[in-house]
Design brief:
Blueprint: E1 2-4, H1 9-25, H2 34-41, H3 45-61, H4 63-73, H5 75-95, H6 99-127, H7 134-161, H8 166-169, H9 171-185, H10 199-218, E2 226-228, E3 231-232, H11 233-253, H12 268-286, H13 288-298, H14 303-309, H15 311-331, H16 334-354, H17 361-379, H18 382-387, H19 395-427, H20 436-449, H21 451-464, E4 484-486
Antiparallel strand pairs: 1-4, 2-3
Length: 489
């Protein structure tokens, strides 16, 4: 049978972006509700931290497996199943009466998110021909910046007016509507890959990612010491790295049925783009902790006003992302990505420079507007750069690897920036007293901590300079812009 692209693929993409936006929103919306959840469930900080950690942990660990399942079972069924699981789990989160129940429901939420995430990106390669993928991948990428910026704002509104339960319950009507729209508007019948599952590779990659992400995400919680018995956080991370090294070796040995064919890294642009997306995700995740502490503790803003402070970043990203995507289709990814990294790094450096007890929120908003514009230019074209020369049968794998690097980069950014900030505060012997000297010392710690994401963005800038000119327009066969694609079942 043959599969045809829809006449208006943007409508199908909009339906997919509903689910993708929910996934990204739930990585940041919980943070602003932590104090309220502590009081509402009469629990400790350790358990509440796990409410967010377990979601990120489950999602990051299962991305490679869900990408392969999408190849095998079909992208639309996997996306619908993931959205259904995510929606039901959101209802369970909202109805949770104990910390344990909430943590368990969040783990299931992460499972649903992992099922949707690789499919949403891979779908774009079927909905749009190669020469027109820049703009839709830019719109897809802008959902990350938009959700990251609006999460604290929406969370503050819901917690202040309806209670913490509604940061999860709001997903239920949105998820139900998204399910209906995806069923009606997103075509099915994409090619499927019926190769056998690489069970050892799945176990090695899952266990390795689990250990690495667990160590990075929860290192501060365990004070980088013992977790179980004599086993410490650094040892857990080391075990994870060794398991991932064993996974790479196994992929080389199992050349016929690998979970991740290593030949995909033979595409220069794919390798460069995955490294670059790690850097930009590191900065996107790492910038929010010092910024949130600065605007609430130093400037004395309420959680809602603190959320409003991030709106200029979302506005800048929302304006720039579609433009950056279309521009990358015309002139290539490198001329857009490299200036984007430079602008994003300069924006965060300016944010660090103006950080102080007397900083005007308007000044801070203007700097974040610049940062959001640069972040979108750096991030939006990377998906198109990564997949530009990857064949259609490899798109699921490419999406899974790309999103795994992005997710691990976000976890690494949050963990390392948090660790550095704590060290900076401790070095200045600051106590949370609210006095003027404390405020100045805290602003100084925030300013110095912001230099870490800036440094990683400079690294991303250097990496993105290696992007090669794409040859995807000349790629024959199923990657051409023809409307009909032959599907073998």
């Amino acid at each position: 049978m043959s599969w045809q692209r829809p006449r208006n693929p943007w409508v199908a993409l909009a339906a997919l972006c509903i689910g993708f936006f929910m996934i990204m929103l739930d990585t940041t919306i919980v943070n602003v509700a932590i104090p309220t959840i502590l009081r509402g469930l009469h629990t400790g900080l350790n358990q509440v931290i796990w409410v967010n950690s377990v979601y990120l942990l489950t999602c990051a660990t299962l991305l490679l497996l869900s990408a392969r399942l999408g190849d095998h079972l079909g992208r639309k069924p996997m996306f619908l199943a993931g959205m259904a699981v995510f929606t039901v789990a959101s209802l369970c989160c909202g109805l949770a009466a104990s910390a344990g129940a909430l943590i368990a429901a969040r783990a299931v939420q992460g499972l649903g998110a992992a099922a949707m995430l690789p499919q949403s990106m891979a779908f774009i390669t079927y909905l749009f021909p190669p020469e027109r993928r820049g703009a839709p991948l830019g719109a897809w990428g802008s959902m990350i910046a938009l959700a990251s910026a609006t999460g604290p704002l929406l969370g503050g509104l819901l917690v202040d007016n309806l209670g913490w339960h509604w940061i999860f319950l709001v997903n239920v009507p949105v998820g139900v509507a998204g399910l209906g729209l995806v069923m009606l508007l997103v075509p099915g019948g994409q090619p499927r890959n019926h190769r056998r599952f690489d069970v050892p590779g799945t176990v090695l990659s899952g266990a390795g990612l689990l250990a690495v992400v667990f160590g990075l995400q929860n290192g501060q919680q365990y004070h980088w010491g013992a977790v179980i018995g004599p086993v410490t956080i650094p040892e857990v991370i080391a075990i994870g790295v060794m398991l991932l090294a064993a996974f790479v070796i196994w992929q080389r040995l199992n050349a016929n049925e690998p979970l991740v064919p290593l030949a995909i890294f033979g595409h220069r642009n794919f390798t460069v783009a995955t490294a670059a997306v790690f850097c930009v995700s590191f900065a996107l995740s790492g910038m929010y902790l010092p910024l949130a502490i600065f605007v609430q503790t130093v400037l004395g803003l309420s959680p809602l006003m603190a959320g409003l402070t991030t709106v200029p970043f979302a506005v800048g990203a929302g304006i720039a992302a579609p433009v950056a995507g279309r521009l990358s289709d015309r002139i290539g990814g490198k001329p857009v990505v490299v200036p984007g990294f430079l602008l994003y790094a300069c924006g965060l450096a300016l944010a660090a420079a103006v950080t102080g007890p007397n900083t005007s929120p308007r000044t801070f908003g203007a700097v974040l507007l610049i940062s959001g514009f640069g972040a979108a230019c750096a991030f939006a074209p990377l998906g198109s750069v990564a997949t530009g020369e990857v064949s259609l049968p490899m798109m699921g794998t490419a999406s899974g690897v790309y999103n795994t690097f992005r997710q691990v980069g976000a976890v690494a950014g949050s963990a390392t920036v948090g660790l550095l900030f704590q060290a900076m505060v401790a070095a200045r012997h600051s106590a949370l007293t609210g006095t003027a000297p404390h405020t100045a010392a805290l602003a100084d710690a925030v300013r110095l901590t912001m230099l870490l994401p800036v440094s990683v963005l400079v690294l991303g800038l250097l990496v993105s300079c290696a992007i090669a000119r794409s040859t995807r327009r000349a790629t024959p066969g199923p990657q051409s812009s023809a409307v009909t694609v032959q599907v073998n079942r």
